[in-house]
């Protein structure tokens, strides 16, 4: 191969690379999706880098039933805050539904989101112990966000028609930016 052609090919690639001074643009959008859902409906949508999202469900039925969930998320690599990020849920998304809905939508970097639901139906009454209550804080580990000053624009939009007419459990995490940590948890225990 001709060395001159190889050099020109490499030089052309270098000029096509993004300028490190420019901000990244991340956008997540859901429009008119998930309307009339029934049952257990979960959706994770992410735009950007190092997004961690989960919808966790546990149901236990029995004489001594006990539903548990454990979620641990950790990010080791810091992210730049030079990000223009936007998240949007538009139209009649997730409207007129029935059941359990979990939605995580994130744009940017190093965002961590958890929707957790536990349902126990048991013949024996159960108390909620400290381990169940403390899990609310265990779900997201500290030190995973950005450490520099935010340098980008952030926008989160939810339509006024989204989620209307829905019944049941609705868990929503929506973020735009860097290093956001969110958790929705619900624990229900019913004695027969």
Task: For this entry, give a set of tags.
3-stranded parallel sheet, mainly beta, flat, signal, Adhesin, 2 helices
Q: Strand-and-helix sequence, N→C?
A: HEEEEEEHEEE
What is the 3D shape?
flat
The total domain count is 1
Helix content estimate: 10-25%
Largest sheet: 3 strands, parallel
Q: What's the helix count?
A: 2
How far apart lie the N and C ends? 78 Å
Structural class: mainly beta
Strand order of the largest sheet: 1-4-7
* Strand percent estimate: over 45%
Q: Overall pLDDT, averaged? A: 79
Q: Total number of β-strand segments?
A: 9
Q: What's the oligomerization state?
A: single chain
| Rg over C-alpha atoms, rounded to the nearest angstrom | 22 Å
Q: Are there runs of 5+ residues with pLDDT below 50, and where?
A: 5-20, 134-144
Protein name: Adhesin
Keywords: Signal
Signal peptide: 1-18
Task: Describe the 3D structure.
The chain is flat. The chain has one domain (39-191). It has two helices and nine strands. Residues 5-20 and 134-144 have low confidence and may be disordered. The strands form three sheets. Strands 1-4-7 form a three-stranded parallel β-sheet, with no helix packed on it. It has helices spanning 3-16, 130-138; strands at 24-31, 38-49, 52-62, 83-90, 98-109, 112-122, 154-158, 167-178, 181-191. With 192 residues, the chain is mainly β.
